[in-house]
Amino acid sequence: MPEPWRRPEDPADGLTEDRWLGGRLVLLQPKRGHRVGTDAALLVAAAGDARQGRIVDVGAGVGAVGLALAQRSSLASVDLVEIDPEIAALAKGNAERNGLEARTRVLRLDALNSGARREAELTESASCVVTNPPFFDAHAVRVSPDEGKARAHVLAGAEADATLADWIQASLAMLAPGGRFVMIHRPDALGAILAGIGSRLGALALLPVHPTIGASAHRLLVSGVKGSKAPLRLAPCLVLHGADGRLTPEADAIHRGERVIDWG
Questions:
Q1: Is the model more confident about 76 or about 33?
Q2: Can you give the pTM of this predicted structure?
């Protein structure tokens, strides 16, 4: 059940107000802990063809990805699903700040709780589900003392015993047949990703993201369509920085919100 909202504090009180994606969005976010960055920009680009229907952003944080997608088309609405009450309050404020409150629901709930999903009418409701799950198992890494940063990086708190596969399956339970699932994660989690997806998605595409030319991929973009029978394929890789250390033209356009990834 969504909890009552309280308005976020003034930006001077532990928060910053930032212009993101080339100034397209104005976001209030914490000064410390997890902040909106390249992963979010990549996820927006990867879900760029989500132009209508309901978009669900699972683990939405301050709402950056879902709001960016809603901003691209007046035919789209967005549900921002976030378990942390303070971060969810920031997401609600960010929807208002960007004039998107009429097409945005902010749902303060545990995405892994099937009863909470049903109560929020999230079951098979979305034409597109996007997610940037916590990257690590709480039992396998040293958890940050910063609660917000820890929740963003590890499956902790209410999800302490959950796995990445559980997160993926909960996300897919919100996706309508024929809808697209888009996720960003670590390449070394590919086995867990495929296990979580199982036979639920087809037209599955994997896009490796490399920090520099010649370096191993450090991120993996995943896209698939619920119920499709099309085979898995490897999409052309994306390199973020050239030999001079600058963003490549494609990566720069993604950071400015001017380029989307074509999944074919």
A1: 76
A2: 0.88
